[in-house]
Amino acid sequence: MTVFKNLTRLGTTLLLWALLEPVLAAPVPTLNAEAALQDGELSLAGSWGFSWGRWLPLDQIGSADLSVDRVELPNYLVDLPIEGLAGRDGIVRGHGTYLLRLTHLDAAFVRPALSMRYARDAWQAWWVDDAGAVQLLGQSGQIAENAEDQAMRHKASLLILPSTSQGGTLVVYLSAYHSNHSGLYGDFTLREYDSAFRLILTDLLVRTFLIAVGIYATIQNMVFFLRRPQETTLLLLALFSGVSLSRAAFSSGYVDYFIAQPYWSIFFYKVEYILIFWPAIAGLQLLLGFFPVRSGRQLMRLTYGLFALAILATAIAPMSSVTAHLWAYQLALLFFTLLCLLTIIRGLILRLPDARHFLLSATPLMMAVINDVIAGQLASYNLYVTEYALFLFLFVQTQIQSARFVDALKTSEHLSAHLGEEVALKTRQLRLHNELLTEQAEDLSHQNDEIKLIAETDHLTGLLNRQTLDKLSELQFQLAIGYRQPLALVIMDLDHFKAINDTHGHLVGDECLIFVASFLRGYKLRKRDIIARFGGEELVILLADTDLDMALSMAQDLCVNLAKTPVRGDHPDITLTASFGVAELISSRANSVHQLIGFADQALYQAKQRGRNRVSAYTRPAADRRSTTPGAV
């Protein structure tokens, strides 16, 4: 049984090898340049020959016995379906060969050229024609069989293929020890030399213009800040411009143009990775300068602390590990970009100035960030636009701030030139304004007094109304309780008032009420005594610090004098009489002002029952009741 199992396993293995061997090990793929040419361009995307762990000798390239693996390009090494290519940590380290045979090249191009912008780490390109002739096309850095000897150089190179060759094989030697995104990726298109050179030159000019914009924005904002140090937002904008400028210089490879030292490539790559999210941090600090929050300083201290840790980790870690964790740098970029967006949205909600134009200018930048994050994860998509959006944002913001600076400068110069005149003019304007405000304040005070008077007095008699009486009597009651002082309350009711209305009419009745109010105001009352219309023909007099005897005496005097004073007018003279009820706080032992009013009302009822035109005092049930008639108490 064991022998049968072994034979079955061996047979299965041989069958799988027979099926997969043509795919895994096959001749070098061939591309007919004349047939595949479209609009003057030849895309090299598709099947390539591939051999890992060795550099195939150039004298064996044209051999019919040469057998290589087939891979689909563009692609990263780490994504190639080759078993054992990546190590246990998922990172590809080693060296190998890419091959692609091209035929009818002389019929398709006059001077074919290929941009090697999307080739990493170190590479060396050769052309082996069908006759066996070998030509070095170009190289970047130094290829090696170990990480110590390898050197990279991130620079856009243009390979010029032989124009007289009918066919041959493009051979690319690659050594990859430092990047997890090594290999041939991106746009691999064969073009005429003039067209390829124009593309590179156009890209160079555009990026040069963008870097010039960054330099201009940085210098302009620093100059403005030095002239107006109190405008810290100008310094923040200059810092943001400088960081963005650095990111553009490193990510576009311009540093390699001026520092042509391949052995600096690891340092440059790590700086480039740090600069992935540093502009977002500088942008957050810029936005917090325009839209401050309570804990903004603590947030930026924490942010720069984390940024320092990221720099330290990047400097210590191997380059291969740094590139393998590209997602972490991109996640930090997205996180700080989100914080920037939330800061702008908060400014919009609070209706802060500058929030709207910041949102308009930052929206394309944030979309570009998302685009570049996606491009960083795909081998076949390499359209990076963040630099373009970044410098567009910088240009817009710099122009806005410079316009404000110029306006402020013009205002300052104008004020300096006409300071005395402006101060005098403003002083006159302020004085007139203050006078106007004073008049308006006085008018408002008079209006308030009138409103208060209307609210507190009876519109007919001009005496205090019931609501005001309730409020003032409660206050007087509490004061009398607190200081243990007497408090007397007198209720007077005009006798037979209904008969006056029925006989002479209500207008005459109103005239009588007005007469009585005037009569009471003319009586010898103190300023602190309160006279109010209680309702109908009932009036109330509240006498502070007045005992029962004093109140009875005053009420009796009022009763006598009122009967002696007729009401004269466009009608026969009318003699008015009134009944009075008196109650006093201490003698009645009232518990509230309402109870005191009730006691006075009971005394008034007694006066009416006893014939009207008299004064009656409230006494407790156990005491003798006292009743007086006009002329006697």
Automatic annotation (TrEMBL):
Q: Is Disulfide bond among the key words of this record?
A: no
User: Which catalysed reactions does the entry list for this protein?
Assistant: 2 GTP = 3',3'-c-di-GMP + 2 diphosphate
One example GO MF annotation: diguanylate cyclase activity
Q: What is its EC number?
A: 2.7.7.65
Required co-factor(s) are: Mg(2+)
Assigned keywords, A-Z: Membrane, Signal, Transmembrane, Transmembrane helix
Pfam families linked? 7TMR-DISM_7TM, GGDEF
| Start and end residues of each GGDEF domain | 485-620
**Signal peptide segment:** 1-25
| Keyword hit for Cytoplasm | no
Q: What class of enzyme is it?
A: transferase
- From the record, give the transmembrane residue ranges: 204-226, 233-255, 267-290, 302-320, 326-345, 357-375
PANTHER family named among the record's database cross-references: DIGUANYLATE CYCLASE DGCM-RELATED, REGULATORY COMPONENTS OF SENSORY TRANSDUCTION SYSTEM
What's the protein here called?
A: diguanylate cyclase
UniProt organism field: Reinekea forsetii
